[in-house]
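In this section we walk through a basic example: taking a raw amino acid sequence and producing a predicted 3D structure, encoded as discrete structure tokens. The instruction is simple. Fold the sequence below.
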Amino acid sequence: MENKVRLPKKFVLKHYLLLLILLAAAFLRLYNIPSTVQFLGDQGRDALLVAGIFKNLDPVFIGPVTSVGNMYLGPLYYYFMLPFLMLTYPSPMGPVYAVALLGIVTVFLMYFIGKQFLGEKVALWASALFGLSATVAHNTRFSWNPNPAPFVSLLLLFFTYKALKKDVKYWIAVTVCFAVLIQLHYLTLLSGAGFGLLWMYQLVTKLKNKQSIKQMLVSTVIGAFIFLFSLTPLFLFDLKHDGLNRNAFLAILTKEDAFSKEVAEDTNKYNQALLDIRFRSELIVSEIAIGKHANNINFALTAVILFIFGYAIYKKQKQKKDVTGELVIASFLFTGILGTSLYKQNIYEHYIAYLFPVSFFVLGYVLQFLSTRKIIGYLGILTFIVLFARFNYRHAQVILNSLGWTIAHIQAVAKTIEDRVVVGEKYNIVLLNSTGDIRGQNYRYFLTASEKPPVPEDQFGEVDTLFIIDEERKIERDVDSPVYEVVTFPNKIPTEIYLIPNGPEITVLRKNSN
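The resulting token sequence is shown next.
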């Protein structure tokens, strides 16, 4: 009994720094979250679909549509949301808390997994930076399909290391993680190149061992089968919709020119390619941690970090020490930088969320290396910490402060509409704002959860009442909006126009105003 009492104390003493990191990470991910959570059209759409699964027993076989290319992801994220939305319905906060808690777990795994293939000190540095990063924390404070990507990619890194170091059967787990990742965001396809290079490296090194080759190929085939099976819903969707996803993917590669495929021959193209690699390197290696700075600060810092990272690996290998973990990180980093540099559209931080663990492992590795270099090393650490603290303190203030327009406000606006509708009345809503979410999916979610839901999409042309929610009031009269539902509504004389304090103006059109 006495030993049981002492064990937690020993654990706290040994891991006090990790506990502090986790507490800080929890604060950044949970503090004031109901008043800061983002609930825009995308989140409203997702919540509507997931609510339909358990309310109407209406399963979904495709996931969210991508912002570029009009492709559909797999439905896995919707089923991740399902149990948590059921717990808090009609509040959409369940999946939000689930994502936040998963983010805290990911911080712990940065330490737990990192110490196994990069060492405990590197893992502590990496988990501290990852846990305190406001950029990473921001992507755990609302429900969206790319947000669990760091958790899954961290497992992918771990199983890749295990496949190289322990047992080739881990390639099955690698492909499972890959199948999950590409259902969160299609740019995570680049992770396939990361572990693909390492798979080929292992294959070459095992060529002389027929038994090892056989085990490796069997594991690869099993993994590939699982991966293809995970795509079954999308294959069936494509069969039913004339290859919509396939055509959209080909369009991205060709017609929309999102990726550069031509080999650069002239100087301008060569210089542009180098610039693309530079900017993507800066984004992945330094901007995530310290933000974007002028006067080539990011370029200089990124170059120094990559040089030290490469030099440290070289020196360790020269000492005949195992560098398998470092090679895993380097492979994913290299393919991530090169792959994103070929992508010609803007890269937003959630596009590369799967690389967050890679970026912070690199930073942790470099800082740990500098800590062994006395004065020069300490100066380097101090410089980085100052830049890191300055950026993340400012960014944290932004993400932790209450929004002017919260979920509670959206729900309150929906309630004013519900109060103006009689039971059985056929009505629809239209949202006017810069996001292009004409259907007002966030407002529609709360209305659909009420006792007076709006009509479904196939009855939009049969409504008796139309509510126009104008959030930005850029036009003098909402009835003059070019939105199809407004243009085709037979009566343009408002029966009521009312203003929500610090919110939208709502115009009510009724087919029979008498």
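Looking at the output, two observations stand out. The radius of gyration is 26 Å. The longest helix spans residues 374-400. In the next section we compare this with other chains.
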